[in-house]
Each structure stands twice: as C-alpha cells, then as structure tokens.
Amino acid sequence: MSFRDTFTRDDSDSNLQYDDTASYYYISTILVVIAIPLAWNVVKNILASLKSSDEKVNRAGQISSDLIKGAAEMTKKKVITGGFLIKVFILIVVTLFTYQLLSRAASHKQLKGFDPYEILEVERGATEKEIRRAYRAMAKRFHPDKNPDDPQATAKFLLITKAHECLTDEKAKVNCERFGNPDGPGTFHVSIALPSFLVEKKNQVAVLVFFFLIILVVIPGGVVYWYNETSKYDEKGVINDNGKIFYAGLNENTIPKNLPEVLGHCYEFSEIPVLPSQQQDFFNLKREIEDEIPKKKYETRNMKTIMSIIGYLNRKPIGPTLQKDLLVVLKKSPVLIQSMAEFAMKFQKIKGAKSFGLRCALNIIDFGQMFFQGIWDQDAYLLQLPSFDAESYQLVTKKFKKPGRIQELQSLPPDQRKCFQILDEPLRNKLNQELDALPKLAV
Q1: For residues 181 and 113, what is the distance between their CA atoms, to the nearest angstrom?
Q2: Residue whose C-alpha is closest to residue 395's, from 359, 428, 357
Q3: Burial category of 383 from C-beta neighbours within 10 Å (exposed 0-12, middle 13-18, buried 19 and up)
Q4: 123 exposed, middle or buried (CB, 10 Å; 0-12, 13-18, 19+)?
Q5: 50, 136, 147, 213: which has the fewest C-beta neighbours closer than 10 Å?
Q6: Which of 11, 23, 7, 10 is nearest to 193 (CA)?
C-alpha cells in the first residue's frame, strides 16, 4: 500500500478525513442571502400595520366615519394573512437550519494533515534520539509481520515509516515542510465539496431520486404553475377574464347607473358569498336599495357585491356583518374601474370591434369620481365632507337648489357661506373647518 493510498477517504478514523465545514458555510451563506430580504419584508409589513391608517382612508371625507374606522381596523389586521404566515414560517425554518449548520461547522473537527510528530506521538522539538526510540517502539507494535490480518496496522506502519523519514532525512524534511508530505508535491487539493452524506454509497439511490425530482419535476412544475398564475393577471394585477364582463356589460349607451352591476360582476369578487350570519343584514340592505337594483341582464352572481356598491354610493346603512366585505370591495374597485375605462377606450381604435363610444368611457370616469367620493349624485358635492350627512344635505338643498361646488365655497369666507347658515352653529363650525382643511386644487 502506497503513502497516497493511506490518505484516501475511509469510514474509519484515519489521519485525513472528509471535512464538511466548507459545505456548511457555503449552504449557510445561501440561506442568509434568502433570509435577509425575507426578514426585511416581514418587518416592513409589521411596521406598516402599526401605522395609523386614518389619513390614508379619510381623504376629503370620501368615506363615511364608520367606514373610516372599519378600514383603519382592517388595515391593522391585514398583515396577518396566509401569505404573511407562510413567510414567517419559512423565515423561522431558514433561521433554525442556518443556526444548526453554523453550530455544526463551529464544532466540526479540523481537517487533519500529515503531522509526523503526532504520528510518532512525540513532542515538537524532540531530539533525534527520542524520535528513533518512538519509531522503534511503534514500528515493533504495528509491523505487518505481527499483524498479518490487520490492514489498518499495515497502513499505520507506513505512516510511522514516512513520519520517521520526514524527521530524520533532510530531503524528506524539506518536502514535508513545503508540501505537507515527505514524497513532495502530490495531487491533493483542498476545495469545497458536497456534504459527505451526499457521496456516501448507501445514499446514492436516494440522492439520485431527490435530484431527479428537483430538476425534472419540481423546477419545471414550479415554472409552469408560476406562468399559469401570472398569465391570469395583467400588469395592474387585474384578472384578464374581466374583459369578458366589460365586453358584455358595456355599450355606447352605458351610464353611471349601470356600472355598479358591471363592476360587481368582476371575478375578483366571485368569492364573496352571502353567509348565514349575513342574511339579516343582506335583506335589510336589499330593502333599502330595492329601487336602485338593476334588472337582470345576465346571470346575476355577486349580488352581495353589487348591492354593497349601490348601498355605499347611496349612503345607505350597511349592516356590521357586511362591513368587512364592503371594505374588500372598496379596496379592489379603483383599479378595476381604471381597467374598465381603459378597456372602453382601447376598443375605439380597433376596426370591426364592438364600439363603446367616447361617452361610455367618460361615464366610467365620472363613475370613478363618484365612487372615490362616496356619492351617487354628481351634484351632491357637499357630501364629501364627513360631517355633512344626508339629513343636512336634504335641509340645505331644500332651500338652496345649488348650494355651490366645493371650490366655490372655499373661495368664500366662512360668514358668507350661505348654505351653512341654516344649520346649527356647532355643525356649521365643524363643516367650515373641514371645508378649509381640504386642499385647494387649481385644475
């Protein structure tokens, strides 16, 4: 058996062993690269949920005070979603796995080299006499003639011989100092390799099956799933199949009154059913807006969504069990209304396609403005003020048919805003404060 044969990898405790430390550090580095942005995303979501959302929701009184409170509460709670919990779980698993790898790397035995002093079991700086004495004792103990059936003894005898040669022969000593072994430069190299359990013979089948599944099943399957999921949405995150709803529900005669039905049929709202606990509030809302509910043009699914939109625009009371679903509708609707307007405009340029007319697109834009302001009547500008309720509106419009636009009233000093003079002083002062707080926009 040659000197190099002695240093081949073996399951027994030989002087040179397979070292997994580099693999542990390499895998840990990859995991840290994954964990840092994931941790930042989780922390960012938590911090965002702690901020007050009143200012984001209450823009110029576009939503009633009850909805403001509900939206603020929903904004604080929405951080605890299924996706967020999955991210936290993955982060915990990655962190624990990284900790285990680093712990293993820290406690891992260092890679052994050829140390003649250790092999001969003598102290560094030992005299030549001490070295020869140790060599003779160990050579006598591990000589192949005394251990004919023990290959480990033979390997040990070769190591002892080379260690003795390295410490007593000048040329061998120089080679040992320069190259780490008495035979001079060899083919030994240190590099990052696979973890040892991956190259063990007993694990070969399992490792091959694992890599087969990863490369030929998991990665292609993940790509196909990602493509199928992302192809369902446009660049704004709107489901592409909503185009069918827009095409069927819009025409050149579409007016804002028809649009809650088209908006309510969007696929984003297809999973908002009427739960048993919501039945009473649902029928109460239906009774309030019965005259506003459009006649059926096609299959009327998402009726709860349509009724919620109509009730919201008409400032009708919406039961507490329906509030959460209404907030979902309010959150998703702006981008859907924008997509609806772009859809109508796009077909103006396609020859041979159904024409919706410019008026249809303008009506969608008007509907969007009314939706954002939370009013159904375009002339009811004052309802944008949070303290200006339906009762106050009826009282003012009864005496003033055209109380004036927001900008017109803003240009007047408080004592000249005649439409407010008929209201009681506390309400009048509050409305003046809200009106003055609105930004003065020049269009």
Answers
A1: 9
A2: 428
A3: buried
A4: exposed
A5: 50
A6: 23
Please state the separation of Cα 176 from the chain's center in Å.
56
Strand partners, 233: 239
Contact of 22 with 33, CB cutoff 8 Å: no
Find the range with the poorest average confidence among 20-29, 89-98, 271-280, 288-297.
288-297
In one-letter notation, the amino acid at residue 312 is Y
Specify the residue for token string 């009427």: 274
* 410-421 CB burial, b ≥16 within 10 A, e <16: eeeeeeebebbe
The residue count for the chain: 443
Annotate 180-243 with DSSP letters as a single string: SSTT-S-S--------HHHH-GGGHHHHHHHHHHIIIIIHHHHHHHHHHHHTTB-TTS-BTTHH
Torsion of CA 362, 366, 372, 377, to 10 degrees: -170
Name the H helices within 218-319.
219-230, 242-249, 259-264, 279-288, 303-313
pLDDT band at 336 (very low <50, low <70, confident <90, very high): very high
Alpha-carbon span 329 to 309, nearest angstrom: 8
Torsion of CA 252, 256, 261, 263, to 10 degrees: 90
- Per the DSSP assignment, residues forming a β-bridge with 239 are 233
Which pair of structure tokens corresponds to residue 382?
A: 């004052």
DSSP for residue 408: H
Strand stretches in 9-147, DSSP E? none
Other Cβ atoms less than 10 A from the Cβ of 146: the count is: 12
Q: What is the largest CA-CA distance in the chain?
A: 123
Please state whether the predicted TM-score (pTM) of the whole model is above 0.85: no
Say if residues 416 and 424 touch (Cβ distance below 8 Å): no
Specify whether the CB–CB gap between 367 and 337 falls below 8 A: yes
Split at pLDDT 50, 70, 90, the class of 340 is very high
Q: What is the mean pLDDT of residues 28-47?
A: 87
SS3 at position 413: coil
With beta carbons less than 8 A apart as the criterion, state whether 435 and 406 touch: yes
Query: 169-200 burial by CB neighbour count: b if 16+ within 10 A, else e?
Result: eeebeebbeeeebbbeeeeeeeeeeeeeeeee
Which two tokens mark 75?
């904004």
